[in-house]
Amino acid sequence: MFVKSQIIKKYFISILGLIIIFTFSLQSVYGQEYTIKFGENFALETTRGITALLFKEIVERASVGDIKVEVYPSAQLGDQEELTDAVKMGSVEMCWGFYPQINEKITILSMPFLFKNLEQARAILNSPFVEKLKEETKENGYQILAMFVETGRHITNNKRPIEKPDDLKGLLIRVPPLEVMSKSIAALGASPQTISFSDLYMALKTGVVDGMENNILNIKDGHYEEVQKYLSLVGYLYFPGVLVMNLDFYESLPVKYQKLIDYAAQSATNYFNWSIDTQAVEYEQYLSEKMEVNDITPENRELFAEKLVPLLQKFIDQGYFTQEDIDEVKEYIKDVG
User: 6-150+239-280 — its CATH code?
Assistant: First the structure.
């Protein structure tokens, strides 16, 4: 087996009993073999890469080899947008999807300062609102297998600490190809630059851009402390991760295998959440030894919010979601955290 990490072994052992139950329950469904190509943007040694390997481990063991999962890391099959298109067309069976292509209404989950903490951002994933999103997404040819929320998005750069929005003026900040992030960075006074994830490290190292916005796990996993001096803990939004499979492929599987895929996806996502909860503080401490790290005062955080909260109305006006959707989300999380 490829999986050698002690972390994943420990986690895997904790769910082994359930896998054994699955194995016995699936014995009546064999003879037909399936192959799942799982495209991934991240390297295998990263948290996201290990998550993909855990999914592979569970599915292959519990199906007794009837389902083979081929993990293609480091954008071997294309970047996140290309992978999402490939899943829709069926040339790749699954990936962590580019959510505006899956269902643009998912954008609501990444709106700046909509959630005050990670607990709220996670809670909404269990809501009737998100269940409706999942059903709507099937119309676009995707089966959503699982969702997670990354830690808050922060800002790194090589020029100066970011204490308040004015500190971003004149900086070239890399953003993913997501409108909510490019508009947020622009509203804060910086110049958003779209650069592919695979080219980001060299772009930062060579000064093509001054900095980026990203989360703690990605900063550590990507070794960006090697090419960035300042890390400012802005936490201006939470980024939803969406694990998707080609709908036709999913529906072609026997029901018991669909249940196995669902179980493996949720277990892998639980591992990702566990990693966030157990590693985020450790990673932040590590980065503080390699970079100049500053938090944002409550007063200055209000300045960021004042700049970014008005984006809600702009996205409503563009038809991404409605005010009623916003009200439903706020109502669900009001007593959380």
Answer: 3.40.190.170
